[in-house]
């Protein structure tokens, strides 16, 4: 029996058990099955588990709290149990080990990282000496669709905490995340007038043609130098090739690096109007994840983690990324460090994998953060 409490094989076996319960966001029954397993892992620990019933087609959320340190701001650990992979995907991507890679749906994003945080907490409980701060671990069921049912909970817990640690996967060879773009989503609905395209085209008002105008206006807002991206990702419209299209629809994603960009561009998109008489353009939407800008408190938290990593024998670099996470909700008001999960590649793909060599050092880093933050 190994005396190493961070033995890779033991931790990987725990990750496997979580991965083998498929948990697509849209299958709350499956997410709850995984939540059952996660909650059972705290039964023998000095911790309480609160289960918040799912709603609006999403699964339950779990809030686990250490029995110590809950009377003062402490450490909040954010994880999600849902994945983007549909049911049955595990047949295409079964759990398997090949060299330094372990494969499986959601193993990198983010069951690997969520399990590391749980394992590190188990070890803190086994250490005997209690760390200075209480630890709250929040497992949500809907991060992959923008956290609609968990956002208020995340923000409330984030405001109560002194530090937030997010177990999203590492980036680019183990980098942790100290900044993320804000994410906005919009729906474009266009109504025109139908007509026969061959005999009476002059009677029609094409919603599709007007959608072309709107798309050009949206595309013109892209500014890669500034870090602003606007993507028209879904378009639908019309009924038949010989009918002037009465309706057209689009879904739009925007990413912005700062709140100033959001304050400028969200109203600009919502204010787009029709350039064609007899055609209406309606755009709805909002910023659903604020930008995660690197604050002084966040920078100090990163420097602390970097020092701990050096003591453990590895270099910890940081990165700014375009993808959003639940860390976006806490970073505006609480020191937040993201990307603390496993290293690997292929999030949301058919080759998703974690690097086995990253398991022990990343678990030890979380453990040292729990022990040393004050």
Automatic annotation (TrEMBL):
Q: Pfam families annotated for this entry?
A: M20_dimer, Peptidase_M20
Q: Which domain of life is it from?
A: Bacteria
Q: Does the keyword S-adenosyl-L-methionine apply?
A: no
Gene Ontology molecular-function annotations: hydrolase activity; metal ion binding
* SUPFAM superfamilies in the record: Bacterial exopeptidase dimerisation domain, Zn-dependent exopeptidases
- Peptidase M20 dimerisation domain ranges (all copies): 178-269
Provide this UniProt record's keywords sorted from A to Z.
Hydrolase, Metal-binding, Zinc
Q: Which cofactor does it need?
A: Zn(2+)
Xref: InterPro entries: ArgE/DapE_CS, Bact_exopeptidase_dim_dom, Pept_M20_glutamate_carboxypep, Peptidase_M20, Peptidase_M20_dimer, Peptidase_M20A
Q: Which residues form a coiled coil?
A: none
Active-site positions on this chain:
82, 143
**CDD domains given in the database record:** M20_CPDG2
Q: What is this protein called?
A: M20/M25/M40 family metallo-hydrolase
Protein species of origin: Bradyrhizobium pachyrhizi
